[in-house]
């Protein structure tokens, strides 16, 4: 609803490509000691010395990944950074730089892009990363955001998806399903707004869910916490497409099976109550909802005492041999095969 | 004209996101010794040891940067890689990796994406780079390509835009304006085709121009050549937006002026003859056409003997003090200020 703002608008065509880039990036200095040179040349120059460089990229498309009817641009900028940093942390690495490429149609005034960049800058500041490059261009329709995140780690600290072994414990950070339920609430409010633009929604009770959807936080704290606890995961992945999909990735790439316990999946009370309101199964939501940006990892059993007291970490299962399959053990103690498209209880 | 192909089509929805990524990337192994891990985890892992890492990114949007009516997808994939590698070479660095993110609407069958990837793979093979990551998603309209190129260099070999000094010589590689004239010919043929779809265009005489537009080559050879000649440029930039724009960037960032000699600008005979056909001024085309992907650099006068015999390199001017301005010395020996939007003789 950016068109509703009652402020003066500056067409981006007034600035031209270079003027626009200069305007949007003028506050973006470089601070990281791994950044030698940021914006303003053909390429950025980084120096990771004896560390490994970690690199990941994501593309966000208006109408596919976000709906500007209910996503404020500042939040969108912030979230677009989180989506990428989450992948760096999932390597057990430190994120240090991003590049930001944006394509916009002419319907976006300069002030809208400033909002988007304000979110990106806020994320960069809080997460201690430099914006070292990018591209700004026009699009025929809508907004496109392409971010590449760069990080670094000592070789011995890196964690891949393929290292899980039989008897390892499966651990998840935070809680799951909230971002998906936040989206359901926003979609419902959008429909209400379309029917009655004067309705005043009371979303107070949904604050946690909506925040998880609009302003997720990448788990920068987890690689730090694991280091402090002296635990190196045997495998790790971030949860962007839903627990089910990520468990399957870990097990497939590690060539193992898993028993995942439904009763252990961490759910916030707000998720449980809103699932009842929407008549959705909260386990299904946690397994398939996605956009949680939590981390899923495996540890050796002997490391369990080091993590068991930590409220950020929940053991939700254990790794089995491959032929036992990738299974969900339900509350009724039945073992169901997890599906690549996610477990759907309606089909059972 | 991808819809015209008389082959069977596979909807991309049949494969799903992960199926599609696996299918398109299955041939993309890693070969570079700086690539530790490529596609298949949350992030790629690279190792540049004691070298600096160089990183650049570009976004290509259908309808803005390319028109699929006359750009074959294989060429588009190839060109998208070139656009990015060119920026790495402009740092006097070696390109070693790219990530490729693509968003497509449902109208693209799998076979179209295979063509696009075939071009990307060909470029990666010829230019000796690994595809180490990316993202594949759907778009609401059209095709979007976001590529990040990564390279490396010794600290002492890196060349920035801001190092030009008074009396340095301004040097350009190859020839200019051909890609722009290739585009004019393709645009004209598109219009002819729209009027009469049965017309058989004879484009043989325009082969060089069309190739420069559809299948440009990044100047991987130039950093290698400069090293062999024992010449380190004082500043360097690639020519993507036109000579005029890039000269202004170099001079502004180096805080100097320039005398650029119109008669020295290297033009292919095909450019001169087609400019006559289109009633365009060939100097204007060379200055503002863009998409040449040649390199523009400055060298110390004392290095002139090392480069003067080389047919790839043309001295087109010399650096002056800042207050002399950024000037084009015309064939009539008049000095005209170069404009940020490019020199337009119609305005004079």
From TrEMBL, chains A, B:
It comes from the Bacteria. Pfam families: AIRS (PF00586), AIRS_C (PF02769). Mg(2+) 4 binds at residues 42, 56, 87. Substrate binds at residues 65, 291, 343. ATP binds at residues 117, 134-135, 161, 240. Keywords: ATP-binding, Kinase, Magnesium, Metal-binding, Nucleotide-binding, Thiamine biosynthesis, Transferase. Residues 166-325 form the PurM-like C-terminal domain. The keyword Transcription regulation does not apply. Its EC number is 2.7.4.16. Residues 40-152 form the PurM-like N-terminal domain. The keyword Nucleotide-binding applies. GO terms for biological process: thiamine biosynthetic process; thiamine diphosphate biosynthetic process. Pathway: Cofactor biosynthesis; thiamine diphosphate biosynthesis; thiamine diphosphate from thiamine phosphate: step 1/1. InterPro entries: PurM-like_C_dom, PurM-like_C_sf, PurM-like_N, PurM-like_N_sf, ThiL-like. Mg(2+) 3 binds at residues 42, 87, 238. Reaction mechanism of ThiL seems to utilize a direct, inline transfer of the gamma-phosphate of ATP to TMP rather than a phosphorylated enzyme intermediate. NCBIfam families: thiL (TIGR01379). Belongs to the thiamine-monophosphate kinase family. Catalyzes the ATP-dependent phosphorylation of thiamine-monophosphate (TMP) to form thiamine-pyrophosphate (TPP), the active form of vitamin B1. This is Thiamine-monophosphate kinase. It comes from Aquimarina mytili.
């Amino acid at each position: 609803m950016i068109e509703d703002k009652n402020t003066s608008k500056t067409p981006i065509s007034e600035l031209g490509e270079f003027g626009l880039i200069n305007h949007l990036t003028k506050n973006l200095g470089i601070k990281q000691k791994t950044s030698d040179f940021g914006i303003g040349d053909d390429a950025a120059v980084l120096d990771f010395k004896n560390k490994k460089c970690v690199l990941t990229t994501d593309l966000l498309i208006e109408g596919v990944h976000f709906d500007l009817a209910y996503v404020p641009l500042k939040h969108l900028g912030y979230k677009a950074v989180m989506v990428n940093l989450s992948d760096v942390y999932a390597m057990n690495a430190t994120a240090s730089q991003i590049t930001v490429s944006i394509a916009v149609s002419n319907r976006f005034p300069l002030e809208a892009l400033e909002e988007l960049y304000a979110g990106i800058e806020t994320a960069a500041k809080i997460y201690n990363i430099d914006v070292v490059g990018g591209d700004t261009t026009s699009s025929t329709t809508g907004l496109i955001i392409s971010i590449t995140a760069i990080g670094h780690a000592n070789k011995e600290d890196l964690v891949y998806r393929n290292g899980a072994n039989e008897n390892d414990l499966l651990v998840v950070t935070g809680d799951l399903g909230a971002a998906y339920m936040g989206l359901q609430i926003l979609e419902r409010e959008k429909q209400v707004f379309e029917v009655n633009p004067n309705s005043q929604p009371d979303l107070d009770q949904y604050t946690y869910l909506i925040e998880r959807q609009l302003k997720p936080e990448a788990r920068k704290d987890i690689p730090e916490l694991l280091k402090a606890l002296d635990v190196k995961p045997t495998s790790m992945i971030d949860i962007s497409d839903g627990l089910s999909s990520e468990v399957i990735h870990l097990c497939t790439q590690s060539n193992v099976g898993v028993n995942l316990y439904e009763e252990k999946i961490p759910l916030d009370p707000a998720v449980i109550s809103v699932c009842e309101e929407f008549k959705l199964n909260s386990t299904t939501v946690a397994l398939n909802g996605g956009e949680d940006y939590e981390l899923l990892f495996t540890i050796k059993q002997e490391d369990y005492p080091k993590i068991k007291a930590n409220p950020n970490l929940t053991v939700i299962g254990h790794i089995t041999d491959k032929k036992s399959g990738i299974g969900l053990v339900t509350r009724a103690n039945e073992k169901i095969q997890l599906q690549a498209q996610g477990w759907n209880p309606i089909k059972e």
